[in-house]
Write a structure and sequence with these properties.
By secondary structure, this protein is an all-alpha fold. It has two helices and no strands. Helices cover 58% and strands 0% of the residues.
Length: 81
């Protein structure tokens, strides 16, 4: 992997803000504040988000596990049996 160049005079400050009105990525201060307020969830909301993400990922994972077991049994009993 290519190493990233490191400059001695770079202190991480932003010289020019690229959030310019008219660009497609422009975001007004009002939109920024709304987005920050929308990020704050209650404990119950966070819990429900975690539960729903777990449930949505559980079905594909179960399908992969069951598929692997079926493939193993098929190979073991048909090819080696």
């Amino acid at each position: 992997m290519k190493k990233k160049k490191r400059y001695d005079d770079d202190d991480g400050r932003t010289i020019a803000d690229m959030n310019v009105e008219g660009f497609k990525w422009y975001e007004s201060e009002e939109k920024k504040k709304k987005r920050e307020l929308a990020r704050k969830y209650t404990k119950a909301e966070r819990k429900s988000i975690m539960r729903s993400s777990f449930v949505s990922l559980a079905l594909p994972v179960i399908c992969l596990i069951v598929g692997g077991i079926i493939a193993y049994l098929l190979l073991y009993y048909v090819w080696l049996g």
